[in-house]
Design goal:
elongated, single chain, three-stranded antiparallel β-sheet, alpha/beta, five-stranded mixed β-sheet
Length: 526
């Protein structure tokens, strides 16, 4: 390929020609002319050799390894809060090391392109270091790898951690499959770049065992069809692939992003979300959790009241749930219906034990409240005279010759039951639903007014799902089996909102019961 370089103002005129050249290079190396590939024509203006080599590298990896398997691992790792600006550059280095032998062995002409590309990268990386941006370990690892490729390694002053990572990356020259690449990436990330990650989130086996549906939730796909889910996951994978393949990752201000169905990156800060995006997020919340039982003005009022301080950029959403009031009967509706049936089946299989537990708890509550309702008698200086005490007159200072009957004034109770509905409860959904049902049934039998609410957090929204209200009839308790665990949980805002209405109740004694695994995690708000 001749060395043709266009200035930025001429890029549009030659964009198609550039794009076709890069695609042809990718297809030739991959051997698959049906595979989709999106060239980075913008970067071609200032880093031609880097763009050409990335096409070669992607083609080689697509030919000898499984891009989708690696992409799914990266998506799952990111789901567990791995740092994107660390993980993806690391993946790019490991992939380069894995395909090097195939590139050099089968296409001798690419050796020169690779060296020229790494020369461009070294210069860019040194500029970052001179600006004090290269102090991050991932930058030091990348610079060390680049210099190794260019045979420009100087052992003096070598960073021990970067050296450990380099040796592990270079071991991939003998990688036999994608699992080898994944293992090295995970080992370097967990033991060199983020040593506390495994303790916080689990090992590689736990990461890989994450259901694909959890990734669909990340991409807002619970409310879509199976085909739409797969399409969005593929777009998300494509975006990740583009990032991890690029060795030229410049330091930028760190931001969190989410991915819209059109695969546009949208900054998560509420200040940067345009009105159309806000509206679409709201629509997705309605599709996922059902319509709100509050009017727009009521919703605006509670958000002004409670979404303050550390909850400033949050939004409250109160609903009776998607099964009670769906927008449409979509995938999310069907998943919720399926979980409802599973929860009911668990109850059916254990109903004798559950009914016994309800009966025991209800009787205990009744006895406790009967005792509190009983009148009690105390000695007094007025009331009903007790003849046996008359002898004390003139002989002692004790003037309490009477008994006074007092009626208990603290026998009225109201109870709120708040259930953590976040994804960390996913492995025990039927049990959690049953626990809530047992408590609610026992309270109903004891005649105690109570409300049962589930809560979770989704893209800045804290969703409160009302299973039953204080004065609802007993048969409403069965709606607790509509419990389903997904998304995150912002405990503070949920507690603040529920307790506010609880405190407005007229009963003197107010009790809040929280069923939770004790792991608050709202990943969408920092």
């Amino acid at each position: 390929m001749e060395d043709v370089r266009w200035p930025a103002e001429q890029l549009e005129e030659h964009r198609l020609e550039i794009s076709n050249r890069i695609r042809n290079l990718f297809w030739t190396v991959s051997g698959d002319y049906d595979m989709e590939f999106e060239p980075d024509t913008e970067k071609y203006v200032y880093s031609k050799q880097t763009v050409l080599y990335e096409a070669v590298k992607q083609g080689a990896f697509a030919r000898y390894f499984d891009q989708k398997k690696l992409g799914m691992y990266l998506m799952k790792k990111l789901h567990f809060s791995a740092g994107e600006d660390i993980l993806l550059p690391l993946a790019g280095l490991c992939m380069d090391a894995a395909v090097e032998r195939f590139i050099i062995r089968e296409r001798l002409g690419t050796k020169e392109i690779r060296e020229q590309a790494f020369g461009e990268l070294e210069k860019a990386e040194e500029e970052q270091i001179s600006d004090n941006a290269g102090t991050d370990l991932i930058h030091r690892i990348r610079l060390l790898y680049i210099r190794h490729v260019l045979e420009n390694t100087d052992d003096e002053g070598m960073d021990p951690q970067a050296e450990i990572a380099l040796y592990k990356i270079l071991s991939l020259k003998d990688a036999e499959n994608t699992e080898d690449v994944i293992n090295v990436i995970d080992e370097i990330y967990n033991h060199v770049l983020d040593p506390s990650f495994e303790k916080r989130n689990g090992n590689l086996e736990k990461i890989l065992n994450l259901p694909d549906m959890a990734l669909a939730n990340d991409a807002w796909q619970e409310c879509m069809t199976d085909e739409q889910m797969e399409d969005i996951i593929q777009k998300y994978l494509s975006n990740l692939k583009k990032k991890m393949m690029s060795l030229d990752i410049r330091n930028k201000k760190k931001k969190r992003f989410y991915f819209s169905p059109e695969n546009e990156e949208v900054p998560e800060s509420s200040e940067n979300i345009n009105p159309q995006a806000v509206r679409r997020i709201r629509e997705y919340v309605e599709l996922n959790y059902g319509k709100s039982y509050l009017s727009e003005s009521e919703q605006a009022r509670i958000n002004r009241k409670f979404c303050t301080g550390i909850h400033k950029n949050c939004i409250l959403y109160l609903t009776d749930g998607i099964l009670q009031n769906p927008v449409i009967k979509n995938n999310q509706y069907r998943f919720s219906q399926l979980q409802f049936e599973k929860n009911k089946a668990y109850y059916g299989n254990n109903h004798w034990i559950i009914k016994r537990n309800i009966s025991v708890l209800a009787e205990s509550l009744k006895r406790a409240f009967i005792i509190r309702k009983d009148d009690f008698v105390s000695r007094s200086d007025a009331g009903q005279l007790v003849p046996e005490r008359l002898w004390k007159i003139g002989r002692t200072d004790d003037d309490k010759l009477f008994n006074r009957k007092k009626r208990s004034d603290d026998s009225e109770f109201v109870i709120d039951v708040l259930i953590d509905s976040s994804g960390s409860q996913a492995g025990r959904q039927a049990q959690v639903a049953t626990q809530g049902y047992i408590i609610s049934e026992a309270l109903s039998q004891a005649g105690i007014p109570h409300r049962v609410t589930g809560y979770c957090a989704f893209w800045g929204y804290t969703v409160l799902q009302r299973f039953r209200d204080y004065e609802d009839p007993r048969e409403t308790n069965e709606r607790i089996f509509q419990f389903r665990a997904y998304a995150n949980n912002r405990d503070g805002l949920a507690l603040k909102t529920v307790c506010s209405s609880l405190m407005e109740r007229p009963e003197k004694n107010k009790i809040l019961i929280v069923l939770s695994d004790g792991k608050p995690c709202d990943m969408s708000i920092q």
